[in-house]
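LAB NOTEBOOK - FOLDING QUEUE
OPERATOR: T.R.
BATCH SIZE: 2
PURPOSE: Compare the predicted structure-token outputs for two unrelated chains run back to back under identical settings.
PRIORITY: normal
REVIEWER: second-year student, initials M.K.

ITEM 1
FIELD SEQUENCE / FIELD STRUCTURE:
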Amino acid sequence: MGGRRLIKAAALLIVLGYSSLLVYQGGVNFNFQDTRANVQVAELSIEPVTKTNVYESGQNRNITLSDIFISVKTTKHYQYTRLPIILKTWFQLAKEQTWFFTDTDNRQHQDQTNGHMVNTNCSASHQRKHLCCKMSVEYDRFLESGKKWFCHFDDDNYVNIPQLVNVLQTYNHKEDWYLGRTSVYEPVKIFKKPTNKLMFSFWFATGGAGFCISRSLALKMLPVASGGRFISICEGIRLPDDVSVGFIIEHLMKKNLTLVPEFHSHLEQMKLLPPETFRSQISFSYSKIKDEWNVVNVPGFDTRYDPTRFLSLHCFLFPHFKFCPR
């Protein structure tokens, strides 16, 4: 009965036609375009300014790395820039648990990952529909895996694998958990035209920082998200993949996002993260705005060799790797 209600609710929302809705994020009109190149780094804070309540369910030391399904969204456009950095660093700590969801076939990377490159057959475009296509495949693959946690990241993330495991051990995968970090200061608000009446609002965890969903919650999403239904939801509400995940979980499922500030995206000032906190962080990111890099401040390799600072960060956290300076 619960599944039928969810399907009916989703169908009703799609039929409403979200072309008649105004979507606001952070108090301004939000067109959901990819604006990474236009981010003004100086205007963004690294400290969370929204939801601050983290509800833990006690230690769950039975969770190990093998219980986690780690998905990384990537594309052929970055297969020779972003991907090699991941393969050289944090992927080496989670080879069996990490899967890459891309839009091309690359025999070299398939060999390097032991068959963990998944050609989603989605477009390489950064448009909403194509991003949602990849997320849909990620979600379905997680369901097939039987793992206890689904953790999504982007190809510009560095994932601190030991800390990811540590944090997930403080939550129960048999309960409904949506863990992540927002990139906005207010929830997404849906207004109805022409009255501009607020219909509902919801938070979402930005995919650029990474997020995790417990298996219990993921299974409840199945009636509206599995088998390509997630793409239909995205198209029906006209929102990107990570926002659509938040829509399903917070609005349809009525489950709240739990803020975990140890996730980080390129929308933050990475240089403000103190090095003494690096080991307690889950994810890091980077971006380049014109000629200026937004990266963590970590000693190590020359910036000409390591502009993203991910190689240096990896050696800071795991100095035993062979490529690290002695």
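ITEM 2
FIELD SEQUENCE / FIELD STRUCTURE:
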Amino acid sequence: MAWAGNQTLISHFVLLGLFSRSPLHLFLFSIIMVMFLVALSGNGLMILLILTDSRLHSPMYFFLSWLSLMDLMLISTIVPRMAADFLMGRGSISFTGCGLQILFFLTLLGDECFLLAFMAYDRYVAISNPLRYSVVMNRRVCWLMVAGSWLFGLVDGLIQAVFTLRFPYCGSQEIDHFFCEVPAVLKLACADTSLYETMIYVCCVLMLLLPFSVISASYLRILVTVLRMRSAEGRQKAFATCSSHMMVVSLFYGAAMITYMRPQAYHSSKQDKVVSAFYTMITPMLNPLIYSLRNKEVTGALRKLLGKCPCGGEALG
């Protein structure tokens, strides 16, 4: 610990975690570990299918492969640490470790915000202007969109990590959360954080509402285009693709907005933990399931991959 005036500054935090040692919480912990394994295998399989099947070498699946990679990294930033703390009965984390967790988490969160917006724009161009789709969404544009997502996410993560840890922290070391999330960490600051909270709110407007506005506008235009389609099969295919994406968007943005766009006074530790679990564990697990179960091209690629495996060939035969 260090001294500042008459206050003792703490040198590390203690994460209280998501669970106690009760039988119910042990059961819930087991469920989360199953979800973690499903997320790892599901997103890993999605990346493998997109890389190996030529039918999935299109902009939509290019973005989807990056979404799967981001989900893999996001859940791996949070769950292994949380599981280790729970199993070993400790939750101590250094200032540096907490700062790195904030940086990685917010970078990946920001990445997904913008990537989902670019995915919505991709669907808008594909459905509303199919003849120019290959020209507008060329390889260079797709790579620029992905690079832009990472850049915006990294800038947001760096700003919030640096500014959060610049505050003096004294008194309690206990963060009532299962990872270093900014609103939970700021509760321990022994300084006025109101100006910084305003800055976080402005950042969230840019990082959440701006991409969400692009998504909403894209899907409004898509809806108008789809309703004008004469082909029932075309309408059905467009609705199937877009409804999957909208489901992912609603789950992800809804949880993120509840956490980062509410005033600090309205934050409850229990509610924050549940909402955070939603977009750090549940959404990364559901994303590959949502996109694969409702997508004939992905399920076809999976059958093709299983057919190449000796065990898969015997099962299919």
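REVIEWER COMMENT (ITEM 2): The first helix runs from residue 23 to 52.
FOLLOW-UP: none requested
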